Fold:
Amino acid sequence: MLGIKGRGPWWSKGDGDALIGVFADGFSKVIAATAIMTYTIKVPGEIIYKNILPSIGLTIFGLNLLFTLYARYLNYKEGRDDNVALPTGLHATRVFTWLFAIMLPVYIGTGDGVLAWKVGVVANLISSVIFIITGYASDWLQKTIPAPALFGTLAGGAVAFLGVNILSKMFNTPIVAFVALFALLIPYMAKIETKIPGPVISIILGTVAAWVMGVKNVDGLKASMANATIQLPKLTLDVFSFDYGALTPYLAIVLIFTIHGAINSLMGIKQAHSVNDNIDAKNSILVIGLVNIISCLFGNPFPLGVFWGHNTWKELKAGSGYSLAVGAIYAILCFSGLVAIVNGLVPAEATLPMLLFIALSSTTQVFNVTDVKYYGVLTLTIVLSLMEIMLSKVMGAVKATAKIVGGPVPTLELLEKGGVDSFGYFYLGNGALFISIIWASIVIYIIDKDWKKATIASLAGALFTFFGMIHSANPGVMVNMPLVICYVVLGVIMTMFKIKGGCNE
Structure:
């Protein structure tokens, strides 16, 4: 095989397997996101095919090129020829959280797909900065926030945003959704080995069902081919011009899921360390964050991260070549407009089961790595996350109804009289992810009888409430003072337990 002495071959024995696995896993997200933006969020095709997809192609190619060269540099530095390039790409959980928990609510609230895209891009920019900071502060962060609180909130978010939302969207066309869903669940849940990746099988069978049922047709395919033109990346600075008040309600989602994404990426890098590939973790996080910032300037709304599976590709004797090949294929598909043809062939409902599976596997993983004594805490975080979805659904339905009948949007008091628990959804749905972390932390410290930390967590809840970051639709000062007092009183009670000698430090 060809290669520079001391840097390893450009193409190794296992690079073909790694190419198929990493590309199929990553590009299926692009297909799904394209379909969702087109049919659900109504982002104009001109923006998708002239801005978003070229920016993704540029980003993935650039990032994979850097990690290809880095693997070869490590080979040169260490006198080896078997370092594997770090598998990277669009981070699944955050991509679909962006779509369903940020961009879709913006579209539902405004009817503006362009604004939804702009909010997604700026959210991605903010996420990139947080990603870098979290990468460098991960040790401190993991000591400050109990792991079950952080990952329980992740599980709750996955169930709410990737579970409830996905199922409701999927079954707009129930037969296609049913076929695609069980085509994915059967091999994964039964652990049946297949040569073709499960998501690909699901998409193929769901697509066949869609064409048989008439959900997809030749006319739609012909229309989609109009977007199949060569488009190169271009700076899109006007994406940053909009009222940033549209982004404010989603900052908690950005923060929570970015912290998880950074920690998840660090765990992926630890997999590399476990097979003696000495990848610098913090610098890798820095590179991913900086590349993502650059991608935002070209209109990319979706965050990047490290894929898990480095140890698998190492066992298969992959090297660095697969990474460069993945990046090149992304660039060709995204620059050429071929994704438009795929979008005309594949229905959104055939791609959505993959997202539901991500929710199921993420939640299962959280329970697997959590001590059984904290299972009640995990359940609490899921319930709190569902409150945010309930608030979104109720208020979305109320606003839509008011618009249809041409009347005013009912107040919370009127909704309460009509049998809707509107105040409960309002107080627990606004800032639900922050509430989840704070409440989970308090309960975890109570379980551990660590009254000092329980006091601190209670006072943190008071502070967040005081400034309207939780239990309120908008930030402010001296917001919801009765609830502030409740948190303070809870902190006093925790302190009294400590004084009485119940501390377990």
Summary: DSSP finds 20 helices and four strands in the chain.
